[in-house]
Amino acid sequence: MNDFIIFHLIIAALYYLGSRAVITSWLWSRYPSSVAHFMDCSACSGFWYGLAVALVIGRGLQLSYLGLDPFAWSTPLLVGACSIAMNPIAAGLMQRGLDQLGVITEETDGHHQG
Fold this sequence. Notes:
Elements: H1 2-19, H2 25-28, H3 33-40, H4 42-60, H5 74-113
Helix pairs in contact: 1-4, 1-5, 4-5
């Protein structure tokens, strides 16, 4: 079960870096509009990030996904398919946390200035 969480945290982080993070804005701000629309879809890009994570990290570190063999041909496809549902949830929770952190930071900054 821990590997399941690790996979989806990495996939959500890749989604965030590929379409929202300030640190990578130099990249995603230059996407053509069709690529930008695709990358903004957490389910669409989640499939491909899931596939890549299963192939590179899952196989490289021999991490099973829900107990499946990381080297089976079907495992990366299953990770990608599950990412279609899990990545929007994880990305939404991540965004909510970042929004809340921004509110706390703004309140704290205002308190110190006033």
